[in-house]
Design goal:
- The strands form 2 sheets. Strands 1, 4, 5, 8, 9, 10, 11, 12, 13 and 14 form a 10-stranded mixed sheet that branches. A 4-stranded mixed sheet has the order 3-2-6-7.
- The longest helix has 16 residues.
- Strand 12 and strand 13 form a beta hairpin.
- By secondary structure, the chain is of the alpha/beta class.
- Helix 1 packs across helix 9, helix 9 packs antiparallel against helix 10 and helix 10 packs across helix 11.
- The chain is globular, with a radius of gyration of 19 Å.
């Protein structure tokens, strides 16, 4: 299956382990970014995954391209040009100390890209799935326009479109997000997000107290039905994270197809090695599941298991196989050495 994603791949600079920014003299170099992470997951699951972006022609831009190619992502539609690669600094938290992200991504190549940099009809030709996230239109007004053009091309070519709402308060306000995101929802078939994303990006708030651990499906039914009625989604999906500490989370999800609500099994993830990219690994798993599994329940179980495994892997990319995910989804969670 041909899966296309559009977004920004960034250079992540992180202190080793759980060190703080101020106590280290060097950083680990890690590549990642919402839609790039999804592309890597889909490539790992055997799909023909394409990542669409723009990167400078210099060696740092090439290093980003190489990182994608290393894991089988097709970079034929990565435009080259612009002045800089976006950077973010990530300090990994532990126990009651949360992880921290500092962005340095203004005026990156994709933020300044023009529609002329991409032939979206050629990109969407023969595609089965197109995925984007709310991070991409938040980068810049130009990136928001690229997102709209890509969605229009996907619809012209009969491509299924998914979005991970992914609200980022350091990139835009809720008011700006809703002004851009709500009109884009008419192109979307599969809407993915958590309770905060749905409220801040689309203005829908579930009847659920996540902080208190009240994440039962009942609190989400009304909002899912309302979102589907307003925007015409084929699926509405929400991850449900219980954050006990930076290194201990509960993790599950639910999906609604207009007829049936399905809630996945719950995973107790402790300790978390790296939470960054957890949502993207869920999206990648869901895309694979909906493309290959016989029903939405099995698709969701694959996505949740894939994301649970990602929390055990350092870096943004989820480097797991279909067999490993299906083993966990099937109940093999003891972590015994595989000999």
């Amino acid at each position: 299956m041909k899966v296309v994603t559009l977004g920004e791949i960034m250079l992540r600079l992180s202190p080793a382990g759980c060190h703080r920014f101020v106590q280290v003299d060097n950083f680990d170099v890690i590549w990642g970014g919402g839609e790039a992470n999804v592309a890597v997951s889909c490539a790992n699951y055997g799909h023909d995954a394409y990542f669409v972006s723009k990167l400078p022609k210099h060696e740092i831009g090439q290093a980003a391209v190489n990182a994608l190619r290393r894991y089988g992502v097709n970079t034929d539609f990565v435009a080259r040009g612009g002045d800089r690669v976006g950077i973010y600094y990530c300090e990994t938290g532990a126990s009651m100390r949360p992880s921290k992200v500092i962005y340095d991504r203004a005026n990156s190549a994709i933020a300044e890209a023009d529609p002329a940099d991409f032939d979206f009809d050629a990109i969407m030709e023969g595609a089965d799935w197109f995925h984007w996230s709310g991070i991409t239109p938040a980068i810049s007004d130009k990136a928001a326009e690229l997102t709209r053009l890509a969605c229009e091309a996907a619809k012209r070519h009969g491509v299924t479109v998914s979005v991970d709402l992914n609200f980022r308060k350091k990139l835009w306000t809720s008011e700006k997000a809703q002004s851009i995101m709500r009109p884009l929802m008419k192109y979307v078939d599969v809407c993915i997000g958590n309770e905060e994303d749905a409220e801040l990006c689309l203005g829908f708030k579930p009847d659920a107290d996540v902080e208190a651990g009240n994440t039962d499906a009942e609190g989400y039914k009304g909002i899912f039905e309302a979102m589907m009625k307003e925007f015409g989604f084929k699926y509405v999906v929400s991850t449900l994270r219980e954050s006990f500490s930076a290194t201990h989370n509960g993790w599950k999800a639910m999906i609604y197809n207009g007829e049936e609500f399905y809630q996945s099994k719950r995973y107790d993830i402790n300790p978390i090695i790296d939470r960054v990219g957890g949502g993207d690994s869920f999206s990648g798993g869901l895309i694979h599941g909906l493309l290959t599994k016989p029903n939405q329940g099995e698709a969701l179980e694959f996505a949740v298991a894939a994301s649970a495994l990602k929390h055990t892997i350092n870096g943004d990319f989820n480097l797991v196989t279909v067999a490993e995910v299906e083993a966990l989804a099937g109940g093999s969670a003891n972590g015994r050495v595989q000999r």
